[in-house]
Design goal:
The complex is a heterodimer of chains A (180) and B (285).
Chain A lengths: L1 E7 L2 E7 L5 H8 L18 E4 L2 E4 L12 E3 L12 H8 L9 H14 L5 H7 L11 H15 L19 H6 L1
Parallel strand pairs in A: 1-5
Antiparallel strand pairs in A: 1-2, 3-4, 3-5
Helix pairs in contact in A: 2-5
Chain B lengths: L6 E3 L4 H9 L5 E4 L5 H6 L7 E4 L9 E4 L2 E5 L4 H6 L1 H6 L1 H8 L4 H6 L2 H7 L6 H7 L3 E6 L2 E6 H4 E3 L2 E2 L6 E8 L5 E8 L9 E10 L2 E10 L6 E2 L1 H7 L6 H8 L16 H19 L3
Helix pairs in contact in B: 10-11, 11-12
The chains are: A alpha+beta (180), B alpha+beta (285).
Bound molecules: flavin-adenine dinucleotide (FAD) and FE2/S2 (inorganic) cluster (2 copies).
Amino acid sequence: MTRISVRVDGASYQDDVEPRTLLVHYLREQLGKVGTVVGCDTSNCGACTVHLDGEAVKSCTVLAVQADGAEVTTIEGVSRGGELHPVQKAFHEMHGLQCGFCTPGMIMASIDLLQDNPDPSDDEVREGIEGNLCRCTGYQNIVRAVQLAAGEMRGAPASDGHVAPAVVDTAAAPHVVGQA
Amino acid sequence: MIPAPFEYARPTTVDEALQAIAAGGEDVKVLAGGQSLIPVMRLRLAAPETVVDLGRVAELRGVREDGDALVIGAMTTHSDVLADPLIQQHAPLIAQATETVADRQVRHRGTFGGALVHADPAGDLPAVALALDAEFVIAGPEGRRTVPARDFFVDYLTTAVGEGELLVEVRVPKLDGQWGMRYEKFNRVAQAWSIVAVAAAVRRENGHIAEARVGLTNMGPTPLRAGAVEAALSGAEATPEAIAAAAAHAAEGTEPSSDLNAQADYRQHLATVLTRRAVTAAAGL
Ligand SMILES: Cc1cc2nc3c(=O)[nH]c(=O)nc-3n(C[C@H](O)[C@H](O)[C@H](O)COP(=O)(O)OP(=O)(O)OC[C@H]3O[C@@H](n4cnc5c(N)ncnc54)[C@H](O)[C@@H]3O)c2cc1C
Ligand code: FES
Ligand code: FES
């Protein structure tokens, strides 16, 4: 066992962990932070993305002992006083999710991208979230959500001046249109 | 899955790290960014007795100038390499290739040295280091030694870094002035690993190519220099026709693998196409 101290979503923790414990398992199983999920065994999907000292990382590919002394932010720590983070709000408004499994990681990767590039183009958003896989949405509304959030965080409308969810025309989707 | 149990050491200096490696038993693994090692430990393809984490060895991080060379610490992360003004100025080929590595999460953790010691044939930095004639500074119980890139990559996933040793830093000669550079990579969208890629550096003089260096990614178990292309380009006119004729030699002497991404003959075809594109761009055409 190795003793670690970490700050997670603003609270301090000291715990004994086995060195082989992955950060994602420490967060979920020892701290109960189940908002961060595991989607693969190959470090490809990005569902487990959290911020480690302010930078997006795949928490399935970091040992808990490597986070000793660090500040971790999970999807559970990005809202402020009951108010959703602008990126969370935009995923909701733009219908940037379907099953929602990729969403915690998508949002954490997107927040990280917007810290580096506050006004990304369509292509830059797609490249910025290349480490996050979504099996449901086809990404279109995720890209729109990130651009809407970018505009809101800059205090300006998004660069093309008009962002709306993709038009949905399948028979099964009236509820989707209604929600948008 | 989670890794098998191991002993964990977290040294703060290179000397301490060498001691921890020496004291770690039969099967010791050095942990850099963990972006290749942790996945293979999770799959239990590796189950070291001891893991020596270099994360706190501050002297291994960062980029500095030393006369005609840049010195890149082994533990400098891919994203630190990308943000570094010295790399942008003196070795833009490294920045171009690093930008294509994996994704932003992996680039935040993965390191320059880790990618080179791991020496995956599909990894992007080995061919770049080879094309730039980099030198590798390796520390071991008997002190330090310097190995040129052509002797560093020994075989599939195997480098000159021996048991009990670690890579400290990489010296990259500055290529300033008339050198142009380009990394051209072919990969599937959802997988960043190169199917084939080409690293080119070209020095132009009076409308001619005075000197060219071409490195090939994933055209064999180790990165390769396209010697026949380099010879054909030396002194050639800097025209699209001359470059295409030289690039046609790119696959000479190569024995690439066949796998689910590409057959060997397709890889050889890709090598000629990507070489033409990389050299053309590096020559400023
Ligand atoms: C999803 C995904 C996609 C990727 N895509 C790409 C890609 O497109 N292109 C690419 O080039 N790479 C890619 N990578 C690999 C990435 O670049 C890794 O960062 C790199 O291969 C290993 O670096 P690391 O610092 O994480 O090393 P680690 O995983 O910590 O170590 C790798 C190996 O090198 C040894 N080692 C590390 N540092 C030293 C040292 N200083 N001295 C001695 N031995 C050492 C370790 O013992 C281990 O055997 C990808 C990885 C992932 C997870
Ligand atoms: S669970 Fe971490 S990348 Fe898939
Ligand atoms: S919404 Fe289902 S995986 Fe993205």
